[in-house]
Amino acid sequence: MMHPLVIAGLVKGFDRMPVLRGVDLTLEPGQVTALVGPNAAGKSTLIKCVLGLVRPDAGRIDVFNEPAGADPHYRRFIGYMPQLPRFPDNLTGQEVLDFLASLRAGQDDRAIAVAEAIGLTVETLARPVRTLSGGSRQKLNAVVALRYDAPLLILDEPTASLDPLSSGHLKDLVRQRKDDGTAVLLTSHVMAEVEELADRLVYLVEGTVRFNGSMDELRLVTGERKVERAIAQLMRQAA
Amino acid sequence: MTTPAFRRVLGYSVRNLVRSRWIVGYGILLFLVADALFRFSGGGPRGAASLMNVVLLVVPLVSVVFGTLHFSGSREFIELLLAQPVGRRTLYTALYLGLAVPAALVFIAAVGIPALMHGGAGLARPMAMTLLTGVLLTLVFTSLAFLCGVRFDDRARGLGMALLAWFAAVVVYDGLILVITTVFRQYPLEKPLLVLTLANPVDLGRVLMLMTFDVAALMGYTGAVFSRFLGTSLGILIATLALVAWAVGPALLGLRGFQRKDF
Description:
The structure holds 2 protein chains of 2 kinds. Chain A is α/β, with parallel strands linked by helices. Chain A has helices at residues 43-51, 93-102, 111-118, 122-125, 134-146, 164-179, 191-197, 215-222, 227-238, and strands at 5-14, 17-27, 32-36, 58-63, 66-67, 78-81, 152-156, 183-187, 200-205, 208-214. In chain A, helix 6 (164-179) links the parallel strand 7 (152-156) and strand 8. Chain B is mainly α. Chain B has one domain (4-260). Chain B has 11 helices and no strands. Chain B has helices at 4-18, 21-40, 45-73, 75-82, 88-118, 124-151, 155-183, 190-198, 201-213, 220-230, 232-260. The radius of gyration of chain B is 19 Å and the shape is globular. Chain B starts with a helix and ends with a helix. At the A-B interface, helix 2 of A face helix 1 and helix 4 of B.
């Protein structure tokens, strides 16, 4: 079976400080996997390794059986929504979308449908990015990630800066993509969001996976019904 | 090199840049200064010679500051671009050329148009060399700016290093030459000074322009040595090639750093 993402023995350190210490992780199609952990657990580094932004010291990352690394071609499988969107100030939202689309020529583009679904209007897209609010930039960020038929979505704090209505729309879109068979890797500090969206949870502490299982398994292991309390329980156990 | 992705990133970079207030302000400032210099010098080679300090001081300063800020300010978007199916070499090269080439074209237009408006017949050769020097210095200091941007994640440190490079080239270097020629005056210094000239792109630019202007009095010690040892034609050729090397070297170092960089 071809997995959307397979990470095996991933090791990475910065200035001799280990950040990831042999991480193993496999994503399944049609599942949302939440990657959670305290600050400096290595979540961002792990995501950046998958995207090829950070070069691992050891280990292997395969995206649909293609090794992540020097050849950028494998990234056509990935839709990425970074935590801090920063787009060129002098371009309009539409120009940003057009430019990014040109880098993925040939991929099914649903930018208009996604923008409509998330409440990003044509008028807003026609404005220079520097005049957009934080929420509108985050919506633009969501459109950039969700517009393609990429079968692996990586969402880093996706609902940050979004109002409850837009946040709800975004979560609906993520669920829709999941139902279509897309694998989603989600990081979030909002546990209600994790509870709402995730099928599996990976708990990372100091670069090591301390828990990797379904939400039911998480409740069973921790004896807590609520995800927030279950995570708190994991944190206490890890301390 | 000119893959579709390269052309698209280049196109984006140019489009983003031409709407920047920086580049517009830079063009207007250069135009006004060049126009005033040619207007008040009667349009002769003296106008071109007066432009020398603008080319040697302002062009490197603007290129190095704007290049560093541009690169550092684009860091998050560069990360987003690297999450697309685009190679690092393609991205770096397109971003570099997308900044350096429009900046060089703005320089040519802003300085060349006043020269055409006010210049006399004897201005063609000095102006051609002024434009060549300005373009090469733009490429050199944009390369250095990108190198600083790649090496230093912290924007302030990157800008500090870039300004230090500019300061070393336009101020410290002259002091160093003065110290060397004073301390070692009993030794034959021509060849070491020839090598030292090659070590400073701003001095190479000065030599390049003054050899064309034939203003020996302004040439300084290194310029005089350069001219005496190599003659005008060979001197111009070597200075030009050295400036090209100064543009390509840091650009390649920056590319190497960019390809190995953890974002």
